[in-house]
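Continuing the batch. This is chain 6 of the set; chains 1 through 5 are on the previous pages. Same settings as before, nothing changed between runs. Recording input and output for traceability.
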Amino acid sequence: MVQERTLPKFDPATAQITKEEGLVLYEDMILGRFFEDKCAEMYYRGKMFGFVHLYNGQEAVSTGVIKAMRPGEDFVSSTYRDHVHALSAGVPAREVMAELFGKATGCSKGRGGSMHMFSAEHRLLGGYAFVAEGIPVAAGAAFQSKYRREVLGDANADQVTACFFGDGAANNGQFFETLNMAALWKLPIIFVVENNKWAIGMAHDRATSDPEIYKKASVFNMVGVEVDGMDVLAVRAVAQEAVARARAGEGPTLIEALTYRFRGHSLADPDELRSKAEKEFWFSRDPIKKLGAYLIENNLADEAELKAIERKIQAEIDEAVKFAESSPEPDPSELYRFIFAEDE
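Output for chain 6:
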């Protein structure tokens, strides 16, 4: 069993969340969970091919960070575990599902599949299959925002970029090189480490000299924050601070969210390396159940309202599957299209 760190304490009374905000967070997390559950079903029925990496258990990180940003304006860079980041960024479930089915109506026109979601409209910079591959891309997006604002004089160019990656990426050279540049240039970027304890089958504690990744920020004179990645309100709170700091020109933040994936590394992984005790420990901290209980206990919602959201999302997922199944395959005549930029 991976050695568990003491989870950061967070007082939910400081969240100052409204009913509307709470329900938005709950709905987004339910969307992510139900979508991924349906992906597992479709994969095992032979509707999806290749590697499919699900996000179950980590929903509080995606929702907490992305919902603290400006939808359609700020940028999001993902990893190969990207479906839920895409959904939180506003990409319609039907477009994400169609992409997983390899259909022309997918958000990447059927070219990207599970690991390469992309949407210019929703400022989703892409899912990246290579570990740490998206980190320098995200820095480029943040650099152009700063350049437009400070050099070209565009007062509206105050976009913030959120860059998601796993604990394994924090041992990659691109992580260190990019954080150094981001700190030097005070880029408006948030580096979000989704530390789910495992890099495929390698336990995090066995792969790094210092398992507390957020402390690496100090080397770059950067703000580093550790947060309970199973508590959406805690994630949202640190994300709001990081976004405000970035937008004010105060530079980047490294957020380490301590979380856990409830399924294997991918749907092809039998998940035999993690102990039953470890999994049960984290299953008991389900972020969706935690938020639901908080909303009810604080009279921000009742059981009926939460169930209504779940029914609404289930209908949306079912419609997404029908849309994907009925959508056309990419036309062979367009095999070489979208490789290079096109004139509008």
